[in-house]
Amino acid sequence: MNRTPVYRLYGSELSYFTGKVRAYLRWAGLPFDEVLSDAEVYRQVIVPGVGAAVIPVLSTPAGELLQDSTDIIDTLDARHAGRDGVPSVYPAGPLQKLASLMLETYGDEWLVIPAMHYRWHHNREWAIAQFGALNAPRASPEEQRQIGARRAAPFAAAAELLGATPPLHAAVEASYEALLQELDTHLARHPALLGGAATMGDFGLIGPLYAHLWRDPAAGELMRRRAPHVARWVEQLQFRPAELRGPLLPDDAIPDTLEPVLRRMAREQLPVLVDSAHRVRRWMGENPGQPLPRTLGQQPFTLEGCTGERIVRPYSLWMLQRVRDHLTSLDEADHQRAAAWLCALGAEQLLDFPDPPRLARDRLSVKPVH
Q1: Residue 138: exposed, middle, or buried by beta-carbon count in 10 A (0-12, 13-18, 19+)?
Q2: SS3 124
Q3: From the candidate CATH numbers 3.40.50, 1.10.1330, 1.20.1050, 1.10.3470, the one assigned to the domain spanning 94-254
Q4: Sheet containing 57-59, strands listed edge to edge, beginning at the edge strand earlier in sequence
Q5: Residue 230, Cβ neighbours under 10 Å: how many?
């Protein structure tokens, strides 16, 4: 039966978070049109509608413009899951839901480091050409390159701000290649992260692993050569998502093969989130009633035994707040089981996390809830 498209996705194949939302819409079977976000679309639709030059943006049948990949998926999940055969992105099992939320935070907020590194330090000229063709499709190749270089400059600079500085390049690549191997071992045995169905964790990982690390030429060649099962999963979730609507593992089980990935998150990202929480709490105490800036200076981080610096992003704590909210909602028995599991992963910092005052999303950043 043909269904008239009712959603409109403003995005781009180049975009990390458009890949996440597009995969979800296809997987959920929600009809949509996609509009390429060229300069005219930004000028006429996106900036007037959401107040910032950002994608993805989703237009709903009611005329709403939704922005932020997590908010978009959460809104659609609340409206459609359980109706007309649309599954939910959230597992019913408390431990599987916890793992799924953790992996979304990891994909959204940490894998941006290798994604930006490979794009701007291994695929730079290709990416500039892509930006130029997107923003000026009728321009000459030379004009496209000039426009692309100008449009791409903030994204290229972000690679180092996020931690991929020259002294850390080898460590970023070693960490990412080890992650690829861990995921490949897991996906050789399971169709998706938690069994036969995609969950929010899969959509968190698909953003970087599709738009940057599968699609960009040098990174894509690396993935297909070193991790063919990961490449297969990317292709399924992005292009044939109905294949990933089978059952999750029974009894709220977490696959043993997924645990190395979760341990990597606990080892690499969780200390940074703890440090960010302390910095945000301190800043709020010194600046009562003020909106949080998008960044709060720099902080140390460690990959593969090498230490670098990256910007402090309060938004990451809004993402982690979702994990903490789930943890604190569990009854005593489920919380004890979750606590034992987190301790076994080396993620016990999630249990006594130094939560800052509650945060709410505010366009591209977050703000305290008063």
Answers
A1: exposed
A2: helix
A3: 1.20.1050
A4: 32-36, 7-11, 57-59, 65-67
A5: 25
Strands (E) located in 85-239: 195-197
Whether CATH 3.40.30.10 fits 7-80: yes
Greatest distance between any 2 Cα atoms in the chain: 64
**11/147 Cα distance (integer angstroms):** 19
Domain boundaries, the chain: 7-80, 94-254, 267-368
Pick from 299, 258, 249: nearest CA to 278: 299
Site of tokens 């007309």 = 84
CA–chain centroid gap for 348, Å, is 23
Nearest one of 17, 119, 20 to 364, comparing CA atoms: 17
Q: Which of 117, 293, 315 is nearest to 213 (CA)?
A: 117
Distance of alpha carbon 22 from alpha carbon 167, whole angstroms: 35
Output the six-digit token pair for 22.
């597009």
Q: In terms of pTM, does the model score above 0.85? A: yes
Q: For residue 1, what pLDDT is reported?
A: 40
AA letter at 92: A
d(CA 208, CA 237): 13
Give start and end residues of each alpha helix (H) in 246-314.
Answer: 259-268, 270-286
Please say whether the beta carbons of 311 and 113 come within 8 A.
no
Residues 163, 310: contact at Cβ < 8 Å?
yes
Which residue is associated with the tokens 């609507």?
Answer: 245
Helix (H, G, I), strand (E, B) or coil at 30: coil
Mean confidence (pLDDT) of the chain: 94
112-146 pLDDT tens trace:
999 999 999 999 999 998 888 887 788 888 888 89
Q: What is the pLDDT of residues 198-243, one digit of tens each?
A: 999 999 999 999 999 999 999 999 999 999 999 999 999 999 999 9
Residue 248, both tokens: 């999750």
